[in-house]
Design a protein that fits this description.
By secondary structure, this protein is an alpha/beta fold. A 5-stranded mixed beta sheet has the order 10-9-11-8-12, with helices on both faces. The longest helix has about 35 residues. It is elongated, with a radius of gyration of 26 Å. The structure holds arginine (ARG). Arginine binds next to strand 2.
Length: about 280
């Protein structure tokens, strides 16, 4: 081998080595960036031993307040699902109750780790957060005061009426799109909307059908119409922060298991029973 060939070989080796070191570093940096982004996520949750759920507990049978042995508790089928997610992750569940309209802001600032609140994964929200597979489907309907039954035969009779909706919920859009020239009153809590309905301050409240049914069973003055509203985005899903793939994957796994075991239907029945026997 001539000296020249030797030099070329050595130079080549050096180049390969340098390239390897640089790509190696690059890879490592990428991994670090990813790990940092995932703070507040699966790793952090597991390390802290708890996962924080954001919900709006005014929505029976999804989530609601109930007195258990003299103590206020938040229960419902969303809560049962959240418990299963926590169990599968091997951590405790902590619940933060707030107004529905504030949930995604708290999720995005990591004040909560995930949201279950009968939340519909609509296009606008999908730009802000990521959603699990849909775990439950429901239609929407109007609840009215029993004394008004004769006034309303169909959706056309609600033209120009004052419709109560939850602030930040998709029911506001549904009302605007599917009722003619409605007036809208948006309140933070569904519980208060139902009070307004009882006292004649709104003409009707638009909610998911199982929720309307639950309130009607508890309140003799209320009545559920048989009007059904279409909802293309339909269904409830769990929300997590964008880029939180590992957590989302774990949540989807739990949901898949619960669906396969017919557990979700069971949780819905149990939540309704709890509500009725309170
Ligand atoms: N499904 C509707 C939405 O996503 C209403 C959900 C209200 N949930 C609640 N817990 N209050 O906008």
């Amino acid at each position: 081998m001539t000296k020249k060939t030797k030099n070329i070989i050595i130079l080549g080796l050096i180049m390969i080595l340098t390239a390897t070191i640089f790509t190696g570093c690059g890879q490592k940096n990428m991994d670090n960036v990813k790990a940092e982004e995932n703070q507040g996520t699966l790793e952090k949750i597991k390390a802290s031993g708890k996962i924080i759920l954001g919900t709006s507990a005014d929505y029976p049978p999804y989530e609601f307040h109930m007195e258990v042995n003299g103590k206020d508790k938040i229960v419902g089928f969303d809560i049962a699902i959240a418990e299963e997610i926590a169990k599968d992750l091997g951590v405790e569940l902590e619940i933060k109750d707030m107004e529905f309209g504030g949930l995604l802001a708290d999720l995005k600032t990591n004040k909560v780790d995930f949201v279950l609140a009968g939340m519909t994964p609509d296009a606008e929200r999908m730009l802000e957060v990521d959603f699990s597979t849909i775990y439950y489907n429901a239609e929407h309907t109007l609840i009215i005061n029993k004394k008004d039954i004769d006034k309303y035969a169909g959706v056309n009779d609600f033209k120009g009426k004052l419709i109560g909706v939850q602030r930040g919920a998709i029911q506001e859009d549904i009302a605007k799109e599917q009722i003619e020239t409605p007036q809208i009153k948006a309140l933070g809590k569904v519980t208060n909307l139902m009070l307004e309905l009882k006292t004649g301050k709104v003409d009707a409240v638009l909610v998911e059908e199982p929720v309307g049914a639950a309130y009607v069973r508890k309140n003799d003055e209320l009545y559920m119409t048989n009007i059904v509203f279409k909802d293309e985005d339909g269904g409830s899903a769990v929300a997590v922060n964008k880029g939180n793939e590992e957590l989302l994957e774990a949540i989807n796994k739990t949901i898949e298991r619960l669906i396969n075991e017919n557990k979700i239907d069971q949780f819905v029945i149990e939540a309704n029973d709890m509500m009725d026997n309170e």
